[in-house]
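Z., the sequence and structure:
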Amino acid sequence: MARLLVYYAHPGHRKSPVNRPMAEAAQAVDGITFADLYRTYPRFEIDVAAEQERLLSSDVILFQCPLFWYSTPSLIKEWIDLVLEHGFAYGAGGDRLTGKTLMFALTAAGPEQAYTPEGYQHFPLRTFLSPLEQSARLCHMRFAPPYVLHSSLKAPDAGWVAPHVEGYRRLLIAIRDDSYDFDAAAAMPIVTYEALPITGER
């Protein structure tokens, strides 16, 4: 079994129609570690030593959050700045995260078509994640394609929340049980509940 660490970061948790049920589903999965960053660090006073210890005790690190201004909520950036420090995650002697996997579960308000050269976002979603992907590479980690729900604001009326949350639950269980095919996922720009590369599933 893989040691899966899920970091949840949403400053508007109570009002989120998608991320809140996703977080609740994640907390109900046995055998994984779940951490709510905004609840743990409401004043952004991150315990670097404790967070580094969590990373060392994990094989897969997954951040669940909404896409804010083409990036993550600010607490994740603060976490990255402080926790992935020189000598620990990168640089001279900084090889403690070698071989681990970094992944994101993201909700985006814009439709999938918006994240194309013809769409109003002009670039694929993965292009906006390039700094995160390069951060993983610098830390000798594998960056897995993100689990994404587009048009998240329309999801409740469109009936997409329940299947997306169920897909998220299956994703976490598959990672935990070593049945998530990361190699197959690597060929996908993003992963959705409609096409999860889980071994043994059709």
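Strands lie at 4-8, 33-36, 60-66, 101-107, 142-143, 147-149. The mean pLDDT is 96.

Let me know what you think.
H.
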